[in-house]
Amino acid sequence: MATGSRVLIGLTMILILLGEMLVPGEGTCQGDIEGLMRECAVYVQRPGPKVNPSAACCIVVKRSDIPCACGRITASVEKMIDMTKVVLVTSFCGRPLAHGTKCGSYIVP
Q1: How confident is the model at residue 96 (pLDDT cuts 50, 70, 90)?
Q2: Which uninterrupted H or E stretch holds 103?
Q3: Which domain holds residue 12?
Q4: Taking the CB of the first residue and of the last residue of the chain, which one, N or C, has fewer CB atoms within 10 A?
Q5: Where residue 26 sits, what CATH number does that domain have?
């Protein structure tokens, strides 16, 4: 996939997540949602191979409340994010999601 396409997908995902996850009055998850999308989007997007995330992605994962973010993933976001890749990224970065955690409509096995 061309770099320009990846950037466009990443920006689209940021806008969707910021628009749908950070709803006024509902509070926000601890951490850096923008950073997660900027540094980690390429590792969780559909389509594409499963690839270990970068050190920069892991830094953001480690300082973010991933279970909280998972609770705010909508159906439209799930169309662009491969939830098995989310589990791979969080595990690789040393912040594995617990079995049974609900991430959008996906339940971590």
Answers
A1: very high
A2: strand 102-103
A3: 3-107
A4: C
A5: 1.10.110.10
Summarize pLDDT for 7-26 with one digit per residue, the tens. 445 545 554 554 444 443 34
HSE toward the beta carbon, residue 23, CA cutoff 13 A = 8
User: Which CA distances in Å does 36 have to 22, 73, 100, 106?
Assistant: 14, 13, 22, 19
Contact status, residue 108 vs residue 67, Cβ threshold 8 Å:
no
Alpha carbon distance 1, 22 (integer Å): 29
Q: What is the pLDDT of residues 82-95, one digit of tens each?
A: 999 999 999 999 99
pLDDT tens figures, 27-49: 567 677 788 888 999 999 998 89
Q: Dihedral, CA atoms, 92, 103, 6, 12, nearest 10 degrees?
A: -150
CB-based contact 11:34 (threshold 8 Å): no
Give the number of domains in the chain: 1
pLDDT at 55 (0 to 100): 97
